[in-house]
Amino acid sequence: MKCEFLKEIFRRGPWIGEQLFGFLLEKCSCAKSQFRQVEALDLVTEVLKSHGSASDKASEKFLKSHISKISHLIKHLVTNMPEKQARRAAVRKFCGKVFQMLTTFKFSSSFVDTLEEDGCAACQSQLGDIFVALKKQQV
């Protein structure tokens, strides 16, 4: 299926994206090609967009339940950064959006805790200022 078609499905029926979110996170980590991995990141971003409001308790609960999978995915992405510059940029953009949501819901500290030391070091080296800003919010 085309990525744009699935994005439209997630826009029209956000509950479908919620049901598939954990599956999408796992598939992003074990994609057979970097192209498919970046395409799957677009789908994950689309699902996260529907949970962007900080005032919604359901969105907070949804994000909190997936923090460990999100941290595992980001650790995988930064330790296996794509070779092509455009795909690296897509990974950085995805990580920036996720970090922004984590900061909005005040989950920065729990995210960094689940990331572990080697994941933090990889994020620091690959993402730089984006990750530093998240760690500053950790307090």
UniProtKB/TrEMBL annotation:
Transmembrane segments: none annotated. It is found in: Nucleus. GO terms for cellular component: nucleus. Keywords: DNA-directed DNA polymerase, Nucleotidyltransferase, Nucleus, Transferase. It is an enzyme of class 2 (transferase). GO terms for molecular function: DNA-directed DNA polymerase activity. InterPro entries: DNA_pol_V/MYBBP1A. Its main location: nucleus. Its EC number is 2.7.7.7. It comes from the Eukaryota. This is DNA-directed DNA polymerase. It comes from Salvia divinorum (Maria pastora).
